[in-house]
Amino acid sequence: MSTAIISTLAVVWRYAWFIALRPLAVLMLTGAAVSLVRSGVSVCKDIPSMAYEIFMWFTS
């Protein structure tokens, strides 16, 4: 009896994973990757201005 319940739960979980959760996980990971890339790009844009500020701080 418990084997049948566990087997049924495994089948339901596998179905839910392939139909609903896997695409959701892919979307979440894609969004996270895009967010990391955007934050990295914004930091790279700030590097010249930060270097200029440090240079001005040392030379004044």
Can you walk through the features of this model?
Keywords: Membrane, Transmembrane, Transmembrane helix. The protein is an all-alpha fold. The chain has one domain. Helices cover 97% and strands 0% of the residues. The chain contains one helix and no strands. The longest helix is centred in the middle third of the chain and has 58 residues.
Output the keywords.
single chain; mainly alpha; 1 helix
In short:
The protein is an all-alpha fold. The protein has 1 helix and no strands.
- Beta-strand percent range: under 5%
> Which runs of at least 5 residues are low in confidence (pLDDT < 50)?
none
> How much helicity do the residues have?
over 70%
Tally of strands: 0
Tally of helical segments: 1
Task: Give the number of domains.
Answer: 1
Mean pLDDT: 84
C-alpha-based Rg, rounded: 25 Å
What is the terminal separation in angstroms? 81 Å
What class would the helix/strand composition place it in? mainly alpha
**How is the biggest beta sheet arranged?**
none
Name the overall outline. rod-shaped
The helix/strand series, from N terminus to C terminus, equals H
Give the helix/strand layout.
Elements: H1 2-59
